[in-house]
Amino acid sequence: MPDVSDTITYSVEAGIGTVTINRPEKLNAFNSGMLLCIRQVLDLAEQDDAVRVVVLIGAGRSFSSGQDLTAVLPNDDSGRPNLARTLEQDYSPLILRLSHYPKITLAALNGPAVGAAANIALACDIVVAARSSYLQQAFVRIALVPDVGGTWLLPRILGPKLALALALTGDRVMAEEAKAMGLVYRVFDDADFSTSVRNFAASFVAGPAMAYRLIKQAFGRSPENDLETQLMLEAELQGEAGRTDDFLEAIKAFAEKRPPVFGLRRNK
Ligand code: LHQ
Q1: Do the Cβ atoms of 15 and 50 come closer than 8 Å?
Q2: What pLDDT is attached to residue 53?
Q3: 266 lies in a domain?
Q4: Distance 202 CA to ligand 1 centre (A)
Q5: What average pLDDT does the chain have?
Q6: Nearest CA owner, ligand 1 atom 18
Q7: Which atom of ligand 1 is nearest to the CA of 67?
Q8: Which atom of ligand 1 sits closest to the CA of residue 83?
Q9: Domain boundaries, position 170
């Protein structure tokens, strides 16, 4: 297994690539190197055929407390922090990478996901959360603007009023409430959170990898498309899905009244 860094660890087991944000003494606050490391690990996981799903989780009692507020940040000419540069260099490439990532990504909120971390979690395909965890657009509490894609994603998930209210108040949204809002897909009990996450992630391992990839493409491009364009895209992607060995197997399994076994031959 690659020894990525102390603060970002990576392991692969039974088709699940697990990226752990591992700086528990700072509640997994991000610095520049950690964000770069996550991108490098995503590259490794993409290239590794054994990895079918990538899980992002925190070590200890937090998912992540967001940007490390004690890190030395670049300054502008006047000597004030140049947060735009931090975003452009460290965060935006990660968000874009996640939004175009071909394999399934799961954010597993073992604890609070605050500020930038909340929006990194939401950039993953599916968010699952421990019952005691929460998401927080905490930016306003330190006189900042939601970033890391929050102002793009939140209105699309929640609608404009609720998204704006969360941004203006910086209120914590507990796991069950986040589920009711559509931010979180499943809430698991804290006591067996890691087992529940593993079982949930495992449910994708034996699934149709190419269909997952194509589904992600369809949903990824939907926001920019009108209906006609999206219908054309669906036809194109479905055309591709229909040519896979997995689809042939599914039809055969249906006729034979048995569950399909996907991935028998490698689909490109
Ligand atoms: C931390 C942090 C942290 C460093 C806890 N940094 N040490 C901004 C700038 C540029 C570009 C990118 O985007 C952003 C957006 C952001 O993400 S801004 C950051 C947003 N996050 C926050 O504002 C959260 C700050 N943390 C907190 O409010 C609290 O720590 C929470 C409410 C998360 C947890 O509180 P507690 O459970 O009471 O834990 P704690 O505060 O005692 O934290 C434990 C340690 O972790 C402590 O260190 P220490 O050495 O004193 O034991 C904290 O200083 C450290 N820590 N968050 N973001």
Answers
A1: yes
A2: 98
A3: no
A4: 32
A5: 96
A6: 67
A7: 17
A8: 10
A9: 8-205
